[in-house]
Amino acid sequence: MDRREFLKISAVVAAAPAATACAGPDVFHDENVTMSPFNEDSTAEDVTAGMDLSGKVAVVTGSNSGIGYETMRVLALRGALVVGTGRTLAKAQEACATVQGLTMPVALELSSFDSVVACAESIRALNVPVDMLICNAGVRGVELEIVNGAERDFAINHLGHFLLVNRLLDKLYEAKQGRVVVVSSRAAYGSAPPEGIQFDNLDGSHGFDTSSAYAHSKLANALFSRELAKRLSSTRITSNALHPGVIKTNIARDSSTLLNIGFSLYAGFSGKNAAEGAATTCYVATDPALATVSGRFFEDCNAVRIGGRNHMEDDEQAARLWDVSEELTRPYLATFVKPEISTDS
Question: What predicted TM-score, i.e. pTM, was given to this entire model?
Fold first, then answer.
């Protein structure tokens, strides 16, 4: 490590405590949703304590590490059959083999629409309802790369999950109360482009910035979840998005050594561990109090709203994003006819 890199890392370390104290957008409790007894210190085991998820099926993308692994571990511990995905079958198998309970490893490379379809078909082959579809996997790129007609972060973090939900929607309908849980980020409102979704620059050809691209994809996650909730409002399926917290994971695995070190140091100063980071995901996916709560954004195990200028509740952009996402994934979308299922079943 040369002197310049050392000084940059030192600056990250020095700035980390201050960064957490800096004023940002106001985050306040969503009064439409009852406050939970949990907070930023709660763990995934805390929020699921005493639950029996036997007979439930959960799908967790990116389950081979970080909060995805902890989410899989705890849901399986509580009795659910967890379909855990990894970018390769070997990665998924290795993770599932270390978990107590019922798991099923499946390969899912979100940058490949063919892989998304194959993953969905493997899950459908189980011939069981899907109670929880947790869109957790994500990446943060370091340079512009176009995947499936879009910038890589947007393609993987948003479009891949958009397609996966589409391919499994009927299985969510078959569940007594299906839940889609989308892991977004505080970056969605803290670092996203001022104009929101850059519909004229989805491939990054008119300007690319690493931090902005990641935040852009996370805003897409939040708006997708919001629009999905709107479209499913007359059903038993809910859709909610969340910020898990700042956690030391391998999301920046493709970044430079310097950025990885800096992120690790920052997470060490102000972040959560994986058990705490998976808490909000597990809470939103399982808590009985949220059976009819949909279209919300959660942080620290509670629904929140974001003050100031942002696009977190921009329904016009959410609807347009849905239409554009359909266009970008159309050859792979499933034609779906809503089944007639009694709401009392």
Answer: 0.88
- pLDDT attached to residue 20: 39
Multiple choice CATH, 3-331, 3.30.700.20, 1.10.357.10, 3.40.50.720, 3.30.420.40: 3.40.50.720
Asked if 228 contacts 239 with a C-beta cutoff of 8 angstroms, the reply is: yes
Given the residues 214, 266, 283, 332, the one annotated as active site: 214
- Is 179 in contact with 285 (CB distance < 8 Å)? yes
The CB density around residue 138, as the number of other CB atoms within 10 Å, is 25
Q: What is the pLDDT of residue 335?
A: 85
> Cα–Cα distance between 246 and 253 in angstroms, integer?
15
Indicate if 266 belongs to the active site.
Answer: no
Residue 262: pLDDT over 90: no
Which pLDDT tens digit goes with each residue over 188-235?
A: 999 999 999 999 999 999 999 999 999 999 999 999 999 999 999 999
Tokens of 97: 């083999």
Residues 6+ apart with CB under 8 A from 301: 36, 38, 39, 40, 42, 47, 279, 280, 283
User: Kind of pairing, strands 132-135 and 146-147?
Assistant: unpaired
pLDDT score at 1: 47
Distance CA 69, CA 86 (A): 10
C-alpha distances in angstroms, 225 versus 94, 157, 241, 297?
30, 13, 6, 9
